[in-house]
C-alpha cells in the first residue's frame, strides 16, 4: 500500500547543533517531495521541496537530500534554534496527475536550550 | 498577498448532524485540497479541486463532499457525522495541482 514512513518519532537536539530528520517512501514512481513543519495548533508550514530529477536542494538553514536508489529523503537543519521545535512531516506525491500528498506520521523535533 | 484562510477555527457538532467547512485559497491559486488530520497522525488526503472540478479523491466515504467556486474558494461538507470524524480539517491551495501546497490553520471539528 501507499506509505511514507519517518524514522524515529522524536528527535532531541541541543540548540546550535545540526538536526537530521529522515523519511522513507515506498513508491518508486513518486516524483515530488515536500517537507512541512507543524507547530501545535497550526496548519503545516511549507519548508522545502524537491523533485525526483534532483538529489539535493538547499534553502535557508535547511537542506533536503533525496536518494532514489534506497527511496530515502532527509531534512537537515543547520544551527537548530528553539523556534525549530515542532513536528516535521515529509510528504510524497505519487499519483501522477493529481496533487495528492501522502504524509508520514511525523517526527517531533525538540530543541534543548 | 493573503494566505489560505479557513473558517470556522473550531466547531462542535452532534453525531448525525451535517457540517460545512470553508476555505479561501491563496491569491492566484486555482487548486484546493482538503485533508483530515487525526490527533498524532499525519494529514490524510480527502479530495482536490482544480478549476472547479474534482481532481482526485482519497479513501473517504461519499458523505464527504466538496465544492469549489469560481473564485477558487472551497467548501467541505460532511453528512451524518460520526465520532471518528473528530479531527483537524486542513485546506491547502497551490498555484496548480503539481506545485507546492500551502496550508491554512485548519478547522478543529469535535463530534460528540
What key attributes describe this structure?
A: mainly beta; six-stranded mixed β-sheet; five-stranded antiparallel β-sheet; B: 112 residues; four-stranded antiparallel β-sheet
- Report the total helices of chain A: 0
Distance between the termini of chain B: 37 Å
Can you tell me the overall shape of chain B? globular
Q: Which structural class best describes the helix and strand composition of chain A?
A: mainly beta
Work out the helicity level of chain B.
under 10%
- The radius of gyration over CA of chain A amounts to 13 Å
Q: Low-confidence runs of chain A (pLDDT<50, min 5 residues)?
A: none
Rg of chain B, alpha carbons: 13 Å
Describe the structure.
The complex is a heterodimer of chains A (about 110) and B (about 110). With about 110 residues, chain A is mainly β. In chain A, about 0% of the residues lie in helices and about 55% in strands. Chain A contains no helices and eleven strands. Chain A has strands at about 5, 10-15, 20-25, 30-40, 45-50, 55-60, 60-65, 70-75, 85-95, 100-105, 105-110. In chain A, strands 2, 4, 5, 9, 10 and 11 form a six-stranded mixed β-sheet that branches. In chain A, strands 1-3-8-7-6 form a five-stranded antiparallel β-sheet, with no helix packed on it. Chain B is mainly β and about 110 residues long. In chain B, strands 2, 4, 5, 6, 9, 10 and 11 form a seven-stranded mixed β-sheet that branches. Chain B has a four-stranded antiparallel β-sheet with strand order 1-3-8-7, with no helix packed on it. The mean pLDDT of chain B is about 95. Classes of the chains: A mainly beta (about 110), B mainly beta (about 110).
Amino acid at each position: 500500500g501507499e506509505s511514507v514512513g519517518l524514522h524515529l518519532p522524536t528527535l532531541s537536539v541541543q540548540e546550535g547543533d545540526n538536526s537530521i530528520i529522515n523519511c522513507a517512501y515506498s513508491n518508486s514512481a513518486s516524483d515530488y517531495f515536500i517537507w512541512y513543519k507543524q507547530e501545535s495548533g497550526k496548519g503545516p508550514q511549507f519548508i522545502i521541496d524537491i523533485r525526483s530529477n534532483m538529489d539535493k536542494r538547499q534553502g535557508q538553514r535547511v537542506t533536503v537530500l533525496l536518494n532514489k536508489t534506497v527511496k530515502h529523503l532527509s531534512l537537515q537543519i543547520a544551527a537548530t534554534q528553539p523556534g525549530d521545535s515542532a513536528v516535521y512531516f515529509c510528504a510524497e506525491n505519487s499519483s501522477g496527475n493529481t496533487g495528492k500528498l501522502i504524509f508520514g506520521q511525523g517526527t517531533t523535533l525538540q530543541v534543548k536550550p | 498577498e493573503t494566505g489560505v484562510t479557513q473558517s470556522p477555527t473550531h466547531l462542535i457538532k452532534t453525531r448525525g448532524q451535517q457540517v460545512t467547512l470553508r476555505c479561501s485559497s491563496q491569491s492566484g491559486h486555482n487548486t484546493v485540497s482538503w485533508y483530515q488530520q487525526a490527533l498524532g497522525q499525519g494529514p490524510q488526503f480527502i479530495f482536490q479541486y482544480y478549476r472547479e472540478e474534482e481532481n482526485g479523491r482519497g479513501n473517504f466515504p461519499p458523505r464527504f463532499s466538496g465544492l469549489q467556486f469560481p473564485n477558487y474558494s472551497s467548501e467541505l461538507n460532511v453528512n451524518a457525522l460520526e465520532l471518528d470524524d473528530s479531527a483537524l480539517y486542513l485546506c491547502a491551495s497551490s498555484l496548480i495541482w503539481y506545485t507546492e501546497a500551502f496550508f491554512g490553520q485548519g478547522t478543529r471539528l469535535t463530534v460528540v
